[in-house]
Write a structure and sequence with these properties.
Blueprint: E1 30-34, H1 38-44, E2 49-56, E3 59-66, E4 69-75, H2 80-95, E5 96-97, E6 102-103, E7 111-120, E8 130-138, H3 149-152, H4 155-164, E9 175-178, H5 181-187, E10 192-199, H6 220-226, E11 228-229, E12 232-233, E13 236-238, H7 241-251, E14 254-264, E15 269-270, H8 275-289
Parallel strand pairs: 1-4, 1-7, 7-14, 8-10, 10-13
Antiparallel strand pairs: 2-3, 3-4, 5-6, 7-13, 8-9, 8-14, 11-12, 14-15
The structure holds 1-O-phosphono-alpha-D-ribofuranose (R1P) and uracil.
The site of uracil (URA) has 10 residues, from strand 7, strand 13 and strand 14.
Protein name: Nucleoside phosphorylase
Organism: Halosquirtibacter laminarini
Length: 291
Amino acid sequence: MKIFKPSELIINTDGSVFHLHLFPEEIADKILLVGDPGRVKLVASFFESTEFERENREFFTITGKYKGERFTVVSTGIGTDNIDIVVNELDALANIDFETRTEKAEKRSLTLVRMGTSGALQPNIPVNSFVLSKTAIGFDGLLNYYAYAEKITNIEFENQFMEYTSWNPRLTTPYVVDGSEDIYQKMASSETVEGITISAPGFYAPQGRELRVPLGDPELNDKIGSFRYNDRAITNFEMECSAIYGLSKHMGHEAMTICTIIANRVRKEANADYKSRVKEMISYTLEHLKA
Ligand SMILES: O=P(O)(O)O[C@H]1O[C@H](CO)[C@@H](O)[C@H]1O
Ligand SMILES: O=c1cc[nH]c(=O)[nH]1
C-alpha cells in the first residue's frame, strides 16, 4: 500500500494538516469556500453554534451548525495556487489516515461550494447578479499538472475556444470542466444566472484590465464575449472555480461556485459597496444547500 511520506503530506507536530492547521474530525461534509478571510465570520454569523475557529496565513476556518446541520467555512485567499493547497488538504483530512499515512479504504465525498465575487463578461448580466457556474474554464493551468486531465475536461470546447480566440501558445492551455450537476440543480432558481466562468491567473491583464502595462492581446475579452459553445456564452471572470471543479472531479467530491457580480466589464460599471449583496448570497446558498 502507498505510504505518503512526511515530505509529501506534511503533518504538523500537533497532528494537524500543514497549511490549514485542521484535524481530520474537524471538517464537515459540506464545506463553504470563500476567497476573503473576512468573509468567514460573515458566513459563521448565520450559524447557531460554532465548534472552533482556526487561522493560519490566509486560511481561516470555522465549523458550526446551520439549522441543525454541520458546515465548515474555509477562506482560500486569492487564486488557484491556493485552491491546490486547500482542496488537497481537505481531501487528505477526509480520505487519508494520518496515523498510517495511507489512503482510507472507505472514501468520503465532500460537498465544496465556493461563494465568491466576480466580473461579468456579458452586458445582460448586471452588477449584483448571482452567477452559478455550470462550467469553468481554467486559464490557470493547474489541472494540467495532474494526470488524466483529458478524462474530466471538455476537449471539444477547449479546441473550439482556442481556435476562435487565436490562443497565444505562450499562455497555458485552457481547460474546461463542469461543476456538480446535482448541486447545480439544488441551487439554481430564477435568482441565479447559468454560468460559464473563466478562472484567471490574475486580476489585471489575465482578465483584460490594462493599467500602465499594455495587454498581450487587447482583443481577447471581446473574443471571449462573442464566443459561443453550443449557443452558450461565457459569463464571468473570477480566480478559483476551475481548480475547485477539476480537483473535485479527480478526488470524487461534488463542487459548485456561486458568485456575486461586482463589476460588469462590458458596461464598465462596478459596485465597490458589494458586501450586503454578498451577505444575501451567503443566506441564499445556505438555504439551498441545507438538507
Ligand atoms: O471574492 P473572492 O471569493 O476572493 O473572489 C474573487 O475576488 C478576488 C479578486 O478580487 C479573487 O479571489 C476572485 O476570484
Ligand atoms: O472583475 C472581477 C471582480 C471580482 N473578482 C475577479 O476576479 N474579477
